[in-house]
Amino acid sequence: MDNESYRVFIENLTGILYVLAGIFLILSLVIRIVNFIKVSSIKDYKGKYDYLRTRENKMVWYSLLSFSIAVFLILNTFEKETILISQWWFIIRMFITACISTLIGYVGYLILKFYNPGKIQKKLDKWRYMPRISSTGNEMKLLTEEEEDVYLDEGMQAEENIFSVDYDVWVDEITKEIKIEKYAGYLEVLKCGTCTFQTLKLREEEIIKPASETEDGELLKHYECTYCSSKRTTKHKIGKLLKTEKDFKLPQDYVLKGERKVKSIMIEIISNKGERSEFYFQSKEDAASFLTEFEYDKSPAEV
Ligand SMILES: [Zn+2]
């Protein structure tokens, strides 16, 4: 590109970048505003709770993403005179600004992942325990775990007993009106196909065919409903074992000098939890065939 057309290109590009940066900056703000309006427009406290729990973090993330794109675009309009000196500066600017905006996005991601959940939890608690108002306008009372059982049917109680679902029962003490709200419990439990309560628990996993390096294995998962006792079994695939040169395999060209003098070969296996196990073999063939059979969960150190 000759100097004149390069100059025209940079001038045009700078104009476009200003417009795009503006669009992304506005988009970032609009997402935040829409989110705020959405939360405020939900009248029902439980509705606010559900929205916050499922959507809040995602919306903040999209807003942040638009913001870091805007930063990237605006930074690429800086130092125009320097950029005009050489086309290399154009590439260097692009690289540096990409690093800066990625960093902003990444820091934002970390905040959303580690700091924001605590903040959202506070808001969630606020909406969950804010006194409900009954249809006649009275303030309702939240019952304790012991008191609420009277209002929950057996299936609901079974769900609560295995911590899959948590029910809140609100009562209007004057009119006796009841409001039952369903919240996710601490443990993830599946929904039973027979009684439709979230009371299906994994009882046992059974490997019917272990995976090898060449073939997939098969696993059966046995579930049992803690409420209606119906059973369910599902079949799952176990992926082929990946054995690369890097993990459990002795290099092909590995020759032990004067092998007859070798008394034993020790293999030390360190798991990703930091547990160490040592195994001794009399020949490298034994060691190699051990490695092809080895499965950490079945190692003697674990048993
Ligand atoms: Zn069931």
Quick summary of this structure?
With 303 residues, the protein is an alpha+beta fold. Helices cover 47% and strands 18% of the residues.
Helix content: 40-55%
Query: Could you describe the largest sheet, including whether it forms a barrel?
Result: 3 strands, antiparallel
State the low-pLDDT regions, or none. 245-255, 298-303
Number of helices: 7
**How large is the share of residues in beta strands?**
15-25%
Spatial sequence of strands, sheet with the most strands? 1-2-3
Separation, N- and C-terminal Cα atoms:
70 Å
Q: Can you describe this structure?
A:
It is built from 7 helices and 8 strands. Helix 1 packs antiparallel against helix 2 and helix 2 packs antiparallel against helix 4 (87-129). The strands form 3 sheets. A 3-stranded antiparallel β-sheet has the order 1-2-3, with helices on one face. It has a 3-stranded antiparallel β-sheet with strand order 4-5-6, with no helix packed on it. Strands 7-8 form a two-stranded antiparallel ribbon. The longest helix is centred in the middle third of the chain and has 43 residues, at 87-129. By secondary structure, it is α+β, with helices and mostly antiparallel strands. Residues 245-255 and 298-303 have low confidence and may be disordered. The protein has 4 domains: 3-129, no CATH class; 141-184, no CATH class; 200-238, no CATH class; 259-298, no CATH class. Strand 5 (217-225) and strand 6 form a beta hairpin. The protein binds zinc ion.
